Amino acid sequence: MEAQWLVLPQLQYILFFEGDHQQPPFDTVVQSLRSSLAATLATFAPLAGKLVHLAETGDVAIRCSASDEGVRFGVAESDADVRRLADEEEHDVQTFERLVPELDMTLLPAPVLAVQATRLEGGGVALGVTVHHAVADGQSLRRWRFVEAWAAACCGDTPPEPPPCFDRSRVRLPGGEELARSVLRKYTPDLPVATTSPVLQEDRLRFTRWTYTLDAQHIERLKQRIVRLGEAHGAPLASFVAVVALAWTCFVRCWSIPADEDAFLFFFADVRDRLDPPAGAGYFGACLSGCLVAALPARDLHGERALAAAASAAQGTIGEMVADPAGGWEFLRIPDAVPMERLMNVPGSSGFRAYEAGDFGWGMPRRVALVRMNQDGQVELVRARDGAGVQVSVSMLQREHVDAFKSLFLDLLE
C-alpha cells in the first residue's frame, strides 16, 4: 500500500495561529515547538529517518540512524497578515507555498519530515508541516495522530492512545514483500530516482483554490434533502457522503461535462480496522483503499434528483469497500482506467480532526489549510473548527470553473 506513494510524495499542511493574548512571544513558540517535536520523535522515530533504496533486494525502507541529520526545523518571517491568510475564502497560493518547508523527495535517500515556523504580520504564527506520503497517510497525519501527539507534548499532557505502531506485518496482502517490490518496479523503475507521476506535473502555482465551511445546519438540511428524494438507501447518510454528493454535482455542472458522457468520483477509505485481521487504530503508515464510484452519466447529476443520485452512487461504492476492504489498494491504476478530465478526486475526510488536534497550548488554529493540491478538480475535506461542520476546499486550473463551482455550491445549500 505504501510503495505507490513514492511517486506522490508530499503531504503539506499549514496551521495558522492568530497571535492573541493566549499565544506567547514568537521565540518562545519556536522553542516550545522545537523541544516538544524532539520529544515526540522519540515515539514516532521513523519520521526522523530517511527513505532509502536497498539495491540488493529492490526494497525501499525507512532508515533510522544517529548518523542522519534528523528533522529540519526552519524558522522564517513574512509580512503576510495572518487574518487575511486565515479568513479569506480564496487561497493566496504563492504565500502558502512559502510557509511550508520544501523537501527534495525525488532522489533516495530522502527525508520524510520537515517543519517550518513563520512569524506573520500581526503577531500570528504559521506552522508548516511536510511529510512523505509513503510514511504517513490521512489517519497518521491528517486525522492528526502525529500532530496531536506533538501538541500534547508541547502542552505537557499525556500522549494520546493508542501509541503508534510501525509493524508493517499488520497489513497482509497476497504476495507480501514480493508484491511490494513489483509495485516499486512498476511505478518507480528508476530507483533510487523516484519521479513524480505525470498526472501531477502541472504547475500547482497556477491553481485557484477556494475554501468554504459548511456548519452543522447546512449539513443537516443537505442530508434531509437527499433522504427526501429517496435514492440514498442502507445505512444512515454520513456527512462525508452528503458533502461529497454536493461537491460532485457542482463539479460535473461547472465543468460542463456532456450529458451522455460518464462522470467519475474517487476517494480513499481508511481500512485499518476493516482488514482481517485488523491493523489497528494505532497503525502508523499508509493503509488506504481507493474507491472509484461507478460511472454515472453526467445527465444524472443534473436536475432535482442529482444530489440523491450522487449520494446513492457514493454509498454503493462504500458498501463494496466494506465487503472487500483491500480491493482498491492499487489506486494508481485508476488514471489509466478513467479520463482524468471527468474525475473529481477527494483525498481528505470530514473525520480529520485537524483543529482539535492542533492545539499546542495557545488555542486551536484559526485555520488549517492543505497546501499541496495538485489535481485539477481536487476537493479536500476536513472537520471544521467548531467540531460539527465540514471545511471544503476545491482546487481548479480555470478560475471560471472555481467561480461556477462556488456559485452552484452555495445555491444548492439554500
UniProtKB/TrEMBL annotation:
Stored Gene3D superfamilies: Chloramphenicol acetyltransferase-like domain (3.30.559.10)
Domain of life: Eukaryota
Keyword Acyltransferase: yes
Pfam family, one: Transferase
Classification via SUPFAM superfamilies: CoA-dependent acyltransferases (SSF52777)
Gene Ontology molecular function: acyltransferase activity, transferring groups other than amino-acyl groups
Matching InterPro entries: CAT-like_dom_sf, Plant_metabolite_acyltrans
Acyltransferase recorded as keyword: yes
Alphabetical keyword list: Acyltransferase, Transferase
Protein name stated in the entry: Anthocyanin acyltransferase
